[in-house]
Predict the structure.
Amino acid sequence: MIFSNLAGRLQETLRKLRGKGKLTEIDVDEALREVKLALLEADVNFRVVRSFINRVRERAIGKEVTSSLTPGQMVVKIVHQELTALMGAKEEKIRVAPQPPTVVLLVGLQGSGKTTTTAKLGRYLKMQGRRPMLAAADIYRPAAVRQLQILGEKLELPVYFSEGKDPVAIAREAVAAVKKQNCDYLLVDTAGRLHVNEELMEELRAIKEAVRPEEILLVVDAMTGQDAVNVARSFHEKLALTGLVLTKLESDTRGGAALSIREVTGCPIKLVGTGEKLEDLEVFYPDRLASRILGMGDVLTLIEKAEAAVEKDQARDLFHKIQDDRLTLEDFLEQMRQLRKSGLLQQALSFLPGVNPKHLRGMQVSEEDFKHLEAIIQSMTPEERRNPSIINASRRKRIARGSGRSIQEVNRLLNQFEQSKKLMKQLARMGKGGFPMKFPFP
């Protein structure tokens, strides 16, 4: 789970406050001392920690808590609000130029993941109905151009490159090419260095002057913590960044970069890389991440990921079956297969409220588990799969024998199915009532 170490510490500290009927100033100070230590151990900038703790304390010992019926919960709410504000309050979208094309310059140090992120952003924009072109302006790193070309071919996106030209000329020519091909976004992959230096900055300033980008996005490795913050500050001073992309967020157990970088640099985090696949690039939602850190879950992101994994026609059929209480074990098995194929099943628990990150460590859904589930469902008659309520004790024994599993496993599967039906019906009901789900309602 993202920020698992920090999340575990904060959840445990705030859990103690929730259980108290009244809160004294001493209670608040003790809790905030633990929060402070947790943030510092997570490599959050010490000035950011100090400012954050002061803001929370000022509100936590004020009237809004003392007059509350549930003061412990109110403190948790304040921490959530301040964490959200720390990371930017709300999501920041990629800008659109008044007249196309919108030029996006991706910059950063060598090894931060710029080339892959350029391709990921291209895919993301394509999925939004845009027509992006990629430009390979990193002529120094061996195979950087070829890497972008291969990724472009995979995504069926045009890639511009000109042999024997310098990066400034390549970027300038790419602007002309993008107009000819009727594309509306140009994503320029630039060269990096092992460290911030004047030669790198001079080249990036020249490219900026040549193409006048709408966005200058710094790509930084979230796992480098305060180094990422320092790099962001240097780039921002020289180039006036418009936003940040944090890569490898899924592997960051601490969270120092994400929690510090906005307040230190003033630059919004716009996108985050959450894996190695080309689809693993997401809009950064500060409120959702704050909820996950505090154990409140992130059902919205879970829903969006599930929707992306399911075809529209299937989603429509599934929605109507859920609404009409016609969901079968055949549907359940098919959804499990799709979630597993998309990789979402492994992530799903970390998005649900009340799940302690410590309990997720080392948790795997194995191929064997799926085979057992399939064996149990396929050992049922078609009537039993479509109407599980008829499965009585004798039928359960027969299914267990036929699948080679125990009666307890059969019972567990049927209970999971009933719980899943209830959860999906609740979510579908909220969707129909205006909840921001994207089921394709007719």
Summary: Residues 171 and 259 are 33 Å apart (CA to CA). The first strand starts at residue 102 and ends at 107. The chain has 20 helices and eight strands. The radius of gyration is 25 Å.
